[in-house]
Write a sequence for this structure.
């Protein structure tokens, strides 16, 4: 009995590590664990069950992420099942500190609170330039290359950059 | 109660799918590159919200229908979206105003639904409310920019208001279904959104220099499946693949 529990804990840890290493297909510098998309991996009757949550309602990568996690678990030798979990809803505050650092190093400004007020018509949000650290930046487009990003420009170093929307 | 929840989820999903389809028609046709990114992004949000709702409706109604079957295999009279969202896109001013009118209604609706006793609807709402705030901001900025712009842009914006305003009253109509679900703590009554909608639109119109027209005869009927002539053409486009190759998937 004791050995079984130990065995299961080890298996669960191995399964988590396999699933957690999957990179996000659209922002490959971070993993699904960094983003907080991978909620849990448990072993149920010998099957690794991964709970995955979508980021944005219309994120086209949701299915790709689920398939990648499934493949990673299979490659690690597990029988597997993916469950899509909606509640509670994912928010950008689930991105880990590690994940935020990786985004920044990759050239994507991590999400900042208070940037999504609907009252902020023409309002300015202090988004920091990931290249030079200046806060003198301006929004070029609310909608960027993927649903999770907006397009910004640094007024000091003049570089355009992606901003991960606060959600 | 489950079948009532399914009906409401389908009604909400129909609004979002039809508007999402309309907005997606701009893909590749928007006036500037940033808008060509923004339009499909907004469409993705709307269609994503519709998908979650259809999938949930299929689950709770228990008839073995998935999201695709509900979206692709119903006829025009079975669609219960409001008339506003099915309106043809018209010019850029008309499209932006349509997005704004709808988002200004949905934002307080989703906000209220985050407290729904139905956990799945609450979770869908928690995500959607943030996306909807973006839509209000983006479309609102354009309505202000165009309304407060040149003589040409202001004229077109006001013309869009005259054209679409008669379709807004339908958003706030209550019926037996909404009353029942409000009593059960599942979803708010549409009429509860009126005050917040008036505030949002009022503030934006004041800045844009636009005025709200009197509407003696508001349009209605979408919730009962009575649609305008544009709807059949929209569905012909939307459902073309499934009607031509039944069961096709990829």
């Amino acid at each position: 009995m004791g050995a079984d529990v130990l065995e299961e804990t080890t298996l669960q840890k191995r399964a988590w590590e396999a699933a957690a290493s999957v990179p996000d297909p659209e922002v490959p510098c971070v993993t699904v664990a960094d983003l907080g998309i991978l909620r849990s991996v448990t072993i149920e009757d010998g099957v690794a069950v991964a709970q995955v949550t979508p980021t944005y309602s219309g994120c086209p990568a949701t299915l790709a992420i689920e398939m990648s996690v499934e493949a990673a678990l299979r490659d690690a030798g597990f029988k597997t099942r993916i469950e899509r979990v909606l509640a509670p809803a994912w928010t950008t505050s689930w991105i880990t500190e590690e994940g935020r650092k990786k985004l920044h190093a990759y050239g994507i400004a991590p999400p900042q609170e208070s940037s999504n007020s609907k009252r902020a018509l023409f309002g300015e949000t202090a988004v920091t330039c990931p290249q030079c650290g200046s806060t003198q930046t301006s929004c070029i487009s609310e909608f960027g290359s993927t649903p999770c990003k907006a397009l910004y420009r640094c007024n000091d170093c003049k570089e355009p950059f992606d901003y991960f929307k606060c959600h | 109660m489950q079948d009532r929840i399914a009906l409401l989820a389908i009604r909400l999903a129909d609004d979002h799918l039809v508007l999402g389809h309309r907005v997606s028609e701009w893909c590749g046709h928007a006036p500037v590159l940033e808008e060509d990114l923004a339009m499909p992004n907004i469409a993705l949000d709307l269609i994503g919200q519709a998908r979650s709702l259809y999938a949930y409706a299929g689950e709770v109604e228990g008839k073995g229908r998935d999201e695709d079957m509900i979206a692709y295999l119903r006829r025009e009279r079975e669609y219960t979206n409001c008339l506003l969202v099915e309106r043809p896109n018209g010019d850029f001013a008309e499209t932006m105003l349509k997005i704004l009118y709808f988002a200004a209604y949905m934002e307080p609706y989703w906000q209220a639904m985050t407290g729904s006793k139905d956990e799945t609807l609450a979770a869908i709402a928690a995500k959607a409310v943030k996306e909807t705030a973006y839509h209000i901001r983006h479309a609102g900025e354009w309505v202000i920019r165009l309304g407060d712009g040149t003589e040409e842009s202001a004229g077109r914006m006001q013309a869009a208001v005259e054209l679409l305003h008669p379709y807004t009253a339908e958003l706030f109509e209550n019926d037996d279904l909404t009353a029942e679900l409000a009593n059960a703590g599942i979803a708010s009554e549409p009429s509860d959104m009126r005050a917040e909608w008036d505030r949002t639109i009022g503030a934006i119109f004041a800045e844009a220099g636009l005025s709200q027209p009197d509407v003696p005869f508001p349009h209605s009927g979408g919730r009962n499946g009575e649609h305008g002539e544009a709807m059949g053409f929209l569905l012909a486009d939307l459902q073309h693949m499934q009607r031509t190759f039944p069961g096709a998937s990829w």
Observations:
- The helical segments of chain A are 2-20, 32-35, 62-75, 97-106.
- The longest strand of chain A covers residues 38-44.
- Residues 115-122 of chain A have pLDDT under 50 and may be disordered.
- Chain A touches chain B through 27 residues (CB under 8 Å).
